[in-house]
Amino acid sequence: MFRPVIHGVAFVLAFAPSAMHGQAPPIDPSDPLAKPAPPVKLPLKEILLTSAPFISLKELDEKYPLPQDPERRTKWRLAILQHQLDKHLAPFEAGAGAKAPWADQARKAIKAYCAANARTAAQRDGVYYQEFLKAIRAVAQSCNDPLVAYLRHRHTTAVTNYDVKRLRDDGAALDALRATKSYPVPVVHASHNYRNAVRWLHRSPKTAITEADVAAADERYASDFAAALAAAKPADWTELYDLCMLEVEMLMKSDLSRLEAWERVDARLKRQKAPSWLRDTFAGKVHVQAGWEARGSGPGAAVDEDSYTTFRDRLKKAAAHLEAAWKAEPSLDTPATTMLYVAKGLGFPRKEMESWFRRAMETNPDNFAACEAKKDWLMPHWHGSKDHGDVIGFCLQCAKTDNFYGKLPYVGEVMILRSMPIGDANNLKELTRSGFHFLFVKMVADGHIARYPEDRWARSRYAFLACLWEKWDIAHEQFEVLGESPWTGWFPHPGEYADAKAMAKKKK
Fold it and tell me: Could you tell me how far CA 330 lies from the centroid of its own chain?
């Protein structure tokens, strides 16, 4: 039976296309899998028929600036792609595998992996990751290149029950990659995954993993991180920062507080002489998270004085670290993006918030996280207009970018999907009774599929949401295109996809 449950997805308010307009833009060389498509037309007439405030196109540009210089964006994306190729393909070309019988297949898979990894938002959502999966599966089994072997093992081997045997297989793939001494940054990612798996198995009942195994994995990870630091360019620092954040989450499962976990990781970074940008960005984000944990997510009136004081103190510390990181390396967007959450909590004036937002978007034109943070700042219960005009206007502006590569049009969906009453059938039905909410789902899905018609993730998502809203004609159309090849994350339960497909066909 089809069960309408949201699986860690996200969603807001909205609007949808009444019609397309204008001419198709030229194909962007940094987005080669996109098809030419006309810009999405914002449904301003539909908004007039609701209680939402009317917003003109001119007002959008004046009140909700969102830097999207096409030339700069293309140049920035191509630079990221080139860095990925330098990091993954160049070592392959320098090795013995470059002349093997399977070299062309391996080369194609590595290039596809680089293209998927070059996206800064939701790298495993969309056609670039799907193209990588096709390419890596097509590589001959006789291929023994360590990078290709690791990618194939990591991305195509199904895991239904992680056990010690799978851990050993992971360790063997990691050891082979490490032995090349050619992939220090990919190795530290693999090393983190292995270390995390060792700790997870160690917590399991009747485990065969010992304290010595945990210590050995910790030691190898520290060594791998040091090697990655030594080889890293500034373009790699964000990846190393992400690993530091993941390490904090991992250590918190060992009964450390967030700040205690940060102190432990930062002590190692200090010993390893990590760049100041990395340490300050890391400290800033951790203090933001710790500040919001102290405050809680409820209304301000429900926050006691001590918690509120701790909240503000931690955000002020975060602001100092983030300011220092931004000054140390203004070409990287993470400090400016994270500062937007400080801006929300400390109530930065609109002009100051917009300044940090501009920095975040100019350094990363595909910065979905920055757009989401600004949207939060503009919510009525924070600093936006009480009639929702500000948040609706900004979400429309994000849709107006047509930047589906960076997923900016999806910003408008995040609020609604995140607030979906999971597991509560009555409230879920009440929410999905609103046609207004589905307008934005349709606008975004139609715009995305026009550009990426072969995207199974997008079509499966659209079919799933159309079923929730009982838009059976739309769901049936998507199911017909998908056939028996959906993106399974949207229909994870046995038989769920077949049941939903049959229901849509019956009710369309």
Answer: 22
Amino acid residing at 399: A
Q: What's the confidence (pLDDT) of residue 414?
A: 60
- CA distance to 123, 232, 359, per residue, from 235 (Å): 17, 8, 17
Count of CB atoms within 10 A of residue 290's CB? 21
Within-domain flag for 131: yes
Task: Give start and end residues of each alpha helix (H) in 232-303.
Answer: 234-252, 258-271, 276-295
Query: What is the rounded CA–CA span in Å between residue 429 and residue 426?
Result: 5
The verdict on residue 106 lying in a domain is yes
Alpha helices in 118-163 (DSSP H): 127-137, 146-156
Q: What's the sign of the alpha-carbon dihedral 373, 401, 420, 369?
A: negative
For tokens 């069960």, what's the residue? Answer: 3
Each residue's pLDDT tens digit, 60-92 = 888 999 999 999 999 999 999 999 999 999 999
Q: How far apart are CA 379 and CA 477, in angstroms?
A: 35
What domain count does the chain have?
A: 1
Structure tokens at 342: 């400080």
Structure tokens at 483: 């056939």
Residue with tokens 């910790």: 218
Longest dimension (CA), the chain: 69
Phi-psi label, residue 70: left if phi above 0, alpha if psi -120 to 50, beta otherwise: alpha
Of 152, 73, 159, the C-alpha closest to 106 is 152
Q: Is residue 410 part of a domain?
A: no
Judged on CB neighbours under 10 Å (0-12, 13-18, 19+), 267 is exposed
Cα 110 to Cα 19, 129, 131, 137, 357: the distances in Å are: 39, 12, 11, 12, 34
With CA atoms as reference, report the closest residue to 66 among 413, 400, 448.
Answer: 400
11 beta partners: 414
- Tokens for 220, please give them: 């190898």
Instruction: Give me 360's structure tokens.
Output: 């975040």
Question: Taking Cα atoms as reference points, which of 307, 293, 308 lies closest to residue 257?
Answer: 293
Supply the mean pLDDT for the chain: 89
Residue 192 covered by a domain: no
Q: 205 burial class (0-12, 13-18, 19+ CB within 10 angstroms)?
A: exposed
Positive or negative torsion for Cα 279, 281, 287, 289: negative
**Containing domain of residue 128, as a range?**
73-143
Residue range 239-257, pLDDT digits in tens: 999 999 999 999 999 999 9
What pLDDT does 397 receive?
93
DSSP type of residue 294: H
Residue 50 has pLDDT above 70, yes or no: no
Strand partners, 414: 11
Cβ count within 10 A of residue 501: 23
d(CA 34, CA 166): 37
Residue with tokens 């449950």: 5
Joined tokens for residue 153: 């093992």
- Residue type at 487 in one-letter notation: W
